[in-house]
Design goal:
Blueprint (H helix, E strand, L loop, with lengths): L25 H5 L4 H23 L4
């Protein structure tokens, strides 16, 4: 198996924007939401997940 050398990770979260039919945004569920607060609470979990991935794949991060 080849080692992962690079990865591009994207996360899509509908916060306060209009969304297509059938989709929801945090604003629709919770009212007005701070994009900065969503980033502050979400990014550390994404970073931790990436660290765990790198650790289990044998790469250092």
């Amino acid at each position: 198996m080849e080692r992962i050398k690079r990865a591009v990770v994207g996360v899509g979260i509908n916060v306060n924007n209009p969304v297509p039919e059938g989709a929801v945004s945090l604003q629709m569920l919770l009212g007005k939401v701070s994009l900065l607060e969503v980033a502050r609470k979400t990014l550390p979990a994404v970073e931790e997940g990436l660290r765990r991935l790198l650790k289990t794949s044998g790469n250092s991060g």
